[in-house]
């Protein structure tokens, strides 16, 4: 995601990671766990003062008349390096900024004194999007050796492109798969629109998320059931065909794409090292699908670096969430 992380003229980048460097090798890597204050300062997220400014249009005529744009505003920040105002986007009249400081404060509030620490923070697309993630202290072990950590990630946009979004995500250490599941009795995500009541709804998100720990408990139980259930290659193919259906009348190209997709997922299921300790189980089938959706599925880009960046963006922005949640419902027992 190197082309998305905000980079500054002094050579620094708006990204920080606790103890581990990211694949793009940008930003700051700390030797200690991050606090909210650390994350904001080291990722250059503090002091933006995102605000709304009136818009005007200039008519391209000899007179050059200036016209007000009454139903839209410019979203503006104070640039973290230059201190000058910078436009991030154009938003509607009901848009209310959520400051980066509120973003970090919310995550702190969500986890209370659980021992969680900030894991990563950063700015994307020139400040238009920001993200912070926290790693919870407890991890899960599915079976004897499949280790799963639990994270809370929060995403926000300052250009009106998306709402404030909080996600609870278990991550397999062995391949860093993002496993977001649509569990029946515990939410794994919460969305807040940028309106005047946003701050109040952010305060409600903690309860709506089921306080994370209920989600973790249910996920672990569901994963264990999948680990105990056998899955054959034909059974997995049936799931894949339901996720990406192809009709008899569809184009040859779509049918060929479906076959290529299936062969890739089958190879992950039957041969990939990431499935070595769980092969032949429903849990392995689900992991093969999520590994494909996040890290293998075709991505746009003229170079291998841009394609890798697009895949990394899928993980952060949750583009593949719908596929993974449907897969979970189809595979879980």
Separation of termini? 35 Å
Overall pLDDT metric: 83
| Rg result | 22 Å
Task: Characterize the biggest β-sheet.
Answer: 8 strands, mixed
pLDDT < 50 runs, ≥5 residues: none
Structural class: alpha+beta
Total count of helical runs of at least 4 residues: 9
Q: Spell out the helices and strands N to C.
A: EEHEEEHEEEEEEHHHHHHH
User: What helical percentage do the residues reach?
Assistant: 25-40%
Strand content: 25-35%
Which word captures the global form? globular
Using DSSP, what is the number of strands?
11
Structural description of this entry:
This protein is an alpha+beta fold and 333 residues long. 35% of the residues lie in helices and 25% in strands. The protein has 9 helices and 11 strands. It is globular and about 70 Å long.
Topology:
Elements: E1 15-18, E2 28-30, H1 36-42, E3 51-58, E4 66-78, E5 85-91, H2 100-111, E6 117-124, E7 129-142, E8 146-157, E9 164-172, E10 177-178, E11 189-192, H3 198-208, H4 213-228, H5 233-243, H6 252-271, H7 282-296, H8 304-317, H9 321-331
Parallel strand pairs: 1-2
Antiparallel strand pairs: 1-6, 3-4, 4-5, 6-7, 7-8, 8-9, 9-10, 9-11
